[in-house]
Amino acid sequence: MKKATIKDVAKAAGVSTAAVSYVLNGKHDKVSKETIERVNQVIGDLNYIPDFSARSLVKNQSKLIGVVIPQTENYRQLILENPFYSEIISGIEGKLRENGYHLILSGVNRGESYLDLSIQRNLDGAILMGIYPEQFYEDLKRIKIPIVLIDSYINDSYFRRIGIDDEYGGYLATRHLIQAGHTNIGLITGAIRKEGVVEKRFLGYKRAIREANFFYNPDYVFEDSMSFEHGLAAGREIAGKHPEITAVFASADLVAFGAIKGIMELGKKVPDDISVIGFDDIYMAKMFVPPLTTVKQDITEKGIMAAEQVIRLIENAEVELAEEMLLPLRIVERQTVKALTETGAVGRGS
Amino acid sequence: MKKATIKDVAKAAGVSTAAVSYVLNGKHDKVSKETIERVNQVIGDLNYIPDFSARSLVKNQSKLIGVVIPQTENYRQLILENPFYSEIISGIEGKLRENGYHLILSGVNRGESYLDLSIQRNLDGAILMGIYPEQFYEDLKRIKIPIVLIDSYINDSYFRRIGIDDEYGGYLATRHLIQAGHTNIGLITGAIRKEGVVEKRFLGYKRAIREANFFYNPDYVFEDSMSFEHGLAAGREIAGKHPEITAVFASADLVAFGAIKGIMELGKKVPDDISVIGFDDIYMAKMFVPPLTTVKQDITEKGIMAAEQVIRLIENAEVELAEEMLLPLRIVERQTVKALTETGAVGRGS
DNA sequence: TTGTATGCGTTATCAT
DNA sequence: ATGATAACGCATACAA
């Protein structure tokens, strides 16, 4: 079955390709009612579907959105096994398809820019997650397409940003622990890079500590990577060598999972011996045993909003959008934080 | 910065567009060494990158692969929160990009076919996960592009299939439980549709039961959906109303997680009171507490192989590939299965 | 070895 | 209201 083209339709309907194009694009003031009907009839019969490549050429818009997520260290695989990204993409895809756009998912090779892909494919817009070298963003600005950054603190009005107040989130989490009566609070975190999400959460942690007039002890921050493995190692260390630490803020749920496992391995109990609070509220958080108390952000919603933004930016270029959009955050109490004091505002959750 | 076209390059290099095209496509027998150098020079200077849309038009190949994954029941979102799909896609993307292809990720709306997208985008090939109505596959065959089905039992030589021997997997899991000395073994499973993955695992379960000369008790199979929630409900029911059941085979890790949680909620212990074995070995399996004993399949590898197959099929149309490829399966012993007997070949794992 | 010309499927301009 | 036709960016058959 050879693919039907606009010419085939035109011929079969006894009209010009222009006429077909008109009805296709809803320019109903340019064609008669009968023509419209006849053409539509033929389109149905021939199962004609327009070719986006051809359309892209002449209209200079591809209806394609690039979505970039970080890769593993060897740059050979996406970090899609981090449920956080999966959930976001899930949100993005739905919104995009709903609006007639398609999504090209990719990582970007070490040192390479995203220019190639965006130019090759004539991307109408892009959504980026992760942190990249400065040059990467500079390159991106040259192609003049709407770009939405998720969880980025790049301060450049060229980009729109969707995120959360990570500093506040870190503060919230730590304060929650403090309100539960904990005083020696550990922090397990990924690499703290300046102006990064991780640093903000760290800053929030420090603020809460200081606000409570506690002593900020650098020995209590376990910094490495945002991974289950690091959480595991840190959890073991805390349970083994830091009996004074009674609560831990892990700056991602995945890290919290690792921490809990590490703590338990050394025979200690969560939350009875050590409380743990996470960050993100990924899908697995409620499934974990024990269910994880965490700082919830609506991940899927984040994806949806990112998609909405690119689309709006594309279709209504003049619209003035806020440079940054922050989604709400809140503590979800489950069962990994235990109140030490009677006065604590926090219970064991349900 | 206006995007450079082949014409710009030709003009700047003082040659024809044909010459540029030649060097672009490596037709080095058609151009002189100097021309090649000069053109490449200019390409670099102008930062020229070919437009795939235009190329797609003339070459009739898009370097685009469609990847389809199932959606939630309301058809508004991908089931990407199931880590299983994330991991597969991760594998697919890496392989694809490595070979110069890009990936369009999408779900497909209820009742719709995938024809539209594949025709619109001139897809070179597609990789499908999930089960669809018969008509869906019939439609697909009309577009004559290589299609790889992941975990499908559609028996049609048009499609290539990548999968595992699910029946054997179900058998393996159940036999593992039996060898550990269990006799009353429950099955928690998704909807058993004929010729589906789930049914095969169920069949394997039955085979192992029969082989051991146990009584197959339909009351021990808890069938609903392949979800954490179903696992949870079934786990509760087993722990609450079926004291005779000492082991459970959950036909997906996610389901096993739910089951374990449900069992624990009723005050029973895993594996001391009830053993649980899962299926898939998703990334989270080792992170769970307790770490899940499960039937391991190499999920990422599955994605990689699927990508390899489409590519091979596309680039070497005559190649005769096996219609179906099965990946190996094996039990990964962790800590959710307990041996009841001295003679059991199975310990508590490490 | 190089260049010219045509066509891929579509939209848009301009006549009619 | 309708229809030629030029363009979009590229690859290629053919001519030079």
Description of the structure:
The structure is a homodimer of 350-residue chains. With 350 residues, chain A is α/β, with parallel strands linked by helices. The first copy, chain A, folds into three domains: 6-50, no CATH class; 64-165 and 300-328, Response regulator (Rossmann fold, 3-Layer(aba) Sandwich), CATH 3.40.50; 166-296, Response regulator (Rossmann fold), CATH 3.40.50. The first copy, chain A, contains twelve helices and twelve strands. In chain A, the strands form two sheets. Chain A has a six-stranded parallel beta sheet with strand order 2-1-3-4-5-11, with helices on one face. Chain A has a six-stranded mixed beta sheet with strand order 7-6-8-9-10-12, sandwiched between helices. The longest helix of chain A has 17 residues, at 299-315. Chain A is elongated. At the A-B interface, helix 4, helix 5, strand 2, helix 6 and helix 11 of A face helix 4, helix 5, strand 2, helix 6 and helix 11 of B. Strand 2 (102-106) of chain A pairs antiparallel with strand 2 of chain B, so a sheet runs across the interface. The structure holds a DNA duplex (16 and 16 nucleotides).
Low-confidence stretches of chain A: 343-350
Biggest sheet details of chain A: 6 strands, parallel
User: What's the overall geometry of chain A?
Assistant: elongated
Distance between the termini of chain A: 60 Å
CATH superfamily placement of the largest domain in chain A = Response regulator
Helix content of chain A: 40-55%
CATH fold description of the largest domain in chain A: Rossmann fold
What CATH architecture of the largest domain in chain A do you see? 3-Layer(aba) Sandwich
Mean pLDDT of chain A: 92
> β content of chain A, as a range?
15-25%
What letter string, H or E per element, gives the SSE order of chain A?
Answer: HHHHEHEHEHEEHEHEHEHEEHEE
Number of helical elements of chain A: 12
Subunit arrangement of the protein: homodimer
Spatial arrangement of strands, main beta sheet of chain A: 2-1-3-4-5-11
Total separate domains of chain A: 3
Radius of gyration of chain A: 26 Å
Pair with the most extensive interface? A-B, 59 and 59 residues
